[in-house]
Amino acid sequence: MLEVLRSIALEVGNLLLEHFRRGTATQVVQEKGADDFTLEADRHAQEVALSLLHRHHFGGALLAEETPGGEPLPLGYTPGLLVCLDPLEGTDNFAHRVPLFGTTLAVWREGGWEAVVFYAPALGEVWEAQRGRGAFLNGKPVSHRPGRGLRLAVNQWPDMPPEVVGQALARLLPLTRNLTSTYSDALDLVWAAEGRRSGVVFLYRRAEPWDIAPALIAQEVGLRVTALDGGRWCREEGGVPVVEGGLLVAPPDLHARLLALGLGG
């Protein structure tokens, strides 16, 4: 499973890197909301990924960011196996010539995340995990090695009321003023797994599954991953993953401190 996901992520990610270096495929083809848009590169990457899934005869259905209508696209190869795809994670970074972007491919099966690969081509980093088998960076096991001080990745979604966001930030600042973001949700999550970030706080009512799937990598290295209220961070509804209630990712001791802040309002 990981071999197929990795192979596709590498090919798609390298295509994106070629566009990035040449400055091509940066035209906005769809405005989806405030600071949310689709580039030519997004669509090109998704077309290539879909073609590769068919070549590998992999997946029962595909749930992807650029799929019209947001409904799973039948693949028909592996019943019960849903592939989730973000062809270009970090679109805003890509558009602004910031090399913090990549491709996410994940598998949802039997009510949980089975596997995930995130490839950041400009960084040369391939992150992957399979449920119960640990996490890996460029083929080597990942372990959480925290640095000095407290450095939290924090991001907010447009569906979170401004007053709740303001309240959450006010509660975090006494803990640390080092609140940061790569503007790539996947990168924040995998960097937290290794300890480049102390933890992650995502403020949303509901998020897309491909954005949050890399949290499996953090979970596989022993970090605690929950919604903001300590509940499940992902559940199944109608055969697809539903991600709601925000996200807390941190080592158990820090997670308990963050949970006590009541960041969800």
TrEMBL record:
CDD domains: IMPase_like (cd01637). This is Myo-inositol-1(Or 4)-monophosphatase. Pfam families: Inositol_P. Gene3D superfamilies: 3.40.190.80, Fructose-1,6-Bisphosphatase, subunit A, domain 1. GO terms for biological process: inositol metabolic process; signal transduction. GO terms for molecular function: inositol monophosphate 1-phosphatase activity. PANTHER family: INOSITOL MONOPHOSPHATASE (PTHR20854), INOSITOL-1-MONOPHOSPHATASE-RELATED (PTHR20854:SF4). It comes from uncultured prokaryote.
